[in-house]
Amino acid sequence: MGQERWRLQQSSYIAGAEIDRDGTSALTSDWVLAFPLGGNVPSTTTSAWEGSRCILTTATSSELKVCQVFVPAAPAANIYQLDFLVFIPTSVTGSISLGVCGNTTTSEYSWVELVQAGGNYQATVKSYDPVNGVATRASAVTAGAVNNWCRVRIVTTAKAVSYAELWTGSALPLPDGTNELASPTATTAAWSGGTFSNWLSISVFGDSPPADIRIDDVLFDLFAPPTRVDPNAAREFTGIVPI
Known about the structure:
Elements: E1 4-6, E2 12-13, E3 32-34, E4 41-44, E5 54-56, E6 67-70, E7 80-87, E8 96-103, E9 108-117, E10 120-129, E11 133-145, E12 149-156, E13 161-167, E14 186-187, E15 201-205, E16 214-222, H1 231-238
Antiparallel strand pairs: 1-16, 2-4, 3-6, 4-5, 5-16, 6-15, 7-12, 7-16, 8-9, 8-15, 9-10, 10-11, 12-13, 13-14
């Protein structure tokens, strides 16, 4: 299956309504991006990414604004990859939980915790279960200054978040796809998911993110790393024909 891309250019988002896909995405019916809880979710014109809009979190009810990619059934042995842009202002001091893989039946969750650490982005892979509580599964890695856009890619197994990659500064892709294939600035260690049950959905952000966090240009794919590069251009760069 081909990847899906959501550029998040709508002026607002209604809970339970499917978010419009990018016109160049694969248009598969398997994956849906939506806000399952809360009321309208605002966006802002100050994306500074594509010269378009992006999601803007708010302080009053941000715990309800969880943007999720839904799959038709719990994953089997697949690898899923979620790729998006994040902006954290210098005023934000709390943590953001990204790529939250959850199984509500067994209360097992895993996520990438993104925080501001000394003015830089820092990512850690964490999990929760009733036996171990909150556990750190991959030590924190740090990259690039906040108050700038950061690219995050989260790779999951069927059971949990495996690892995260960060791109900052000169490693960021440009809106036209240039520099899309740059190496990550930092990558966490990997975690297998242990004995966790398969997850049921994956959140782009959640767990009461602080105000003014911005999310833009969400990509999602099975197995292959998603890319903003046009498929024909990607073929020229890599010599591989995308699925």
